Amino acid sequence: MEIILVITEKKEFIQNLPRIKLKNHNILILNNTSYIKHYLEEYMPKYIVLSAKLKNYEEISGYINDNTDSEVIITDSNDKKSALPGNIFTGNIEKLDDLKRILEIVDDLNFKPAPKDKEKYRFITQQVISFYSVQGGVGKTSIVFNFAWYLKDIVRGKILIIDLNFCEGPSDLAINLDLNLSPNLSVFIEKITQGIDCFDKSVISLTGNDRIDILQPPLSIYQSDKFNIDMLDSIVYSARSKYDIIIADVPFRYDNISLEMLNLSTASILVLSPDIKMVPRVINFQKFLPPGQRKGIIFNKINRNEKTYIDEWKDISGISVYDRISFIPEDRRRIIASGRSSFDILDLQAGMPDLEKVIF
């Protein structure tokens, strides 16, 4: 599918545009114009919706016209004197519904579907997906990384893992991936006034793969205690300007940080063992989840002799079961490897394809 790139600094649009679904195009959002060159080269958008409220919008429009075949649609201005050939002016756009109508009109312009057999990658609207649990020891962190590792080969774009498992010392994910201890979230906490640069300095890239970045938790409870909801909101806001998929590993806690992360997500995945005793806890926890959010359950570590009541979970809890991952005996276990390096994380890739329905 073709891409419509929306360039805006309006927070309401950035937060809500990922929920808009078009028939013929996918929507990509950019709120930091310093990344414009990267976005144009990486995604080659068919249409670009550009807000004239950006102070350098004329310069950006000129660059797009000189270096791409994209069609530029200027919002928030009726001044056509400075328009370059091919630019379209739509007037002021104050409400999300107004922008949605423009996108729907653009979506129907000269659409010619591309042959599916020529598609190497899948273009998607930006997603924020949280994995959580209501019990410990279910392999949630392993599933988070396996899902990111699986998506890197089918999504054209970058993936960020936000690890919110605060503890004293490095987290399980950091240990299993053998990550350097710095940078981590402490950088963001101490230098939050630096804005987007502060976020960039807090992220670490996964060795051997340029599609996956990781935001590690602080190394001490003292630093973790300084982290608050406003900081989390700022992190997700900053991440949305750079990443196509944001995956959060949410700890088994009922604190404000965990609940806010779930609230900011476009989808939430509950990781469980097939224990029917967990049903009351799952039902009670659902009151913390946004009503319109996509939700799903993954059952992990299922034994062959496990009861088949898993199919009944949807009727009991109202949440669809996306996947069931079988228990892997010791002698059949493999770890995820990348070239000569290996991660100390169980290879669960065979169970990831069913999770595609979370985002596609």
In the predicted model, the low-confidence regions spanning at least 5 consecutive residues are 80-86, 112-123
User: Residue-averaged pLDDT, rounded?
Assistant: 83
Spatially, the strands of the biggest sheet line up as 8-9-7-10-6-11-12-13
Give the N-terminus to C-terminus distance in angstroms. 12 Å
Proportion of residues in helical segments? 25-40%
Number of domains: 2
Characteristic key phrases:
about 350 residues, alpha/beta, 2 domains, eight-stranded mixed beta sheet, Rossmann fold, five-stranded parallel beta sheet
In short:
With 360 residues, this protein is of the alpha/beta class.
How does this model look, in words?
This protein is globular. It has 360 residues and is of the alpha/beta class. Helix 10 (229-239) runs parallel beside helix 11. The strands form 3 sheets. An 8-stranded mixed sheet has the order 8-9-7-10-6-11-12-13, with helices on both faces. The chain folds into 2 domains: 2-118, Rossmann fold; 127-358, 3-Layer(aba) Sandwich (Rossmann fold), CATH 3.40.50. The chain has 13 helices and 15 strands.
Detail the topology: elements first, then pairings.
Elements: E1 2-7, H1 11-16, E2 25-30, H2 36-43, E3 47-51, H3 57-67, E4 71-75, E5 88-89, H4 96-107, E6 127-132, H5 140-151, E7 159-163, H6 172-176, H7 185-190, H8 196-202, E8 204-205, E9 212-215, H9 221-224, H10 229-239, E10 245-249, H11 256-264, E11 267-272, H12 279-285, E12 294-302, H13 313-317, E13 320-326, E14 335-338, E15 341-346
Parallel strand pairs: 1-2, 1-3, 3-4, 4-5, 6-10, 6-11, 7-9, 7-10, 11-12, 12-13
Antiparallel strand pairs: 8-9, 14-15
Helix pairs in contact: 10-11
